[in-house]
Amino acid sequence: MDARVHAAPQAAPGPAAWATLSQANDQYRRVMVRGVFDHGRETLVQAVTDYGAGFWVLTPLRTTQGFTVLVNRGFVTPERRAPETRSGAQVGGPQTVVGLLRVTEPGGGFLRANDPGAGRWYSRDVAAIAAARGLSNAAPYFIDADARPNPDGWPRGGLTVIAFPNSHLVYALTWFGMALLTLVGYGVLARETRRRRAAP
């Protein structure tokens, strides 16, 4: 995983590679893509970061290869929710984005489902966002932009939290818990046996 995150960026996968993408092989792969942002179709997704509560700014990028990819340009505070509060970052013309490939997050957050009709997003569900924004030929993944500063300093990229399941730790904790319960059960049984023997 560490090697994937810090490797030289590769071209973002195009349509021919989409069917073979997987979380195991592609999540957090460092990629690069060039294209033009469609700021009029940006989507705000609720987020909590080291900067506090706010939003991820997901902006469609029409690539020079002809497909569209959602780019998580970074985090904004609630005060910077409106695009006019960060107009310097509404860059035009061809842009190069370097970041980490991320697998879609379908459905919504832990406790709340996405509500596309109301424009309330709690997860970065690529297919649902693409449908709601009328994006065609959209990649089934998004890109978390790196920490290169945007004009005016917002959105703030490079805040990806790299997390993956640690099944070995879960396995060890499960067995530790079972062993502890066995010891407790044995202690209760031994105490009950002694109590019965001591009874007149």
Automatic annotation (TrEMBL):
It is found in: Cell membrane; Membrane. The chain crosses the membrane at residues 169-189. The keyword Membrane applies. PROSITE patterns: SURF1. One of its GO terms (cellular component) is plasma membrane. Belongs to the SURF1 family. This is SURF1-like protein. It comes from Brevundimonas aurantiaca.
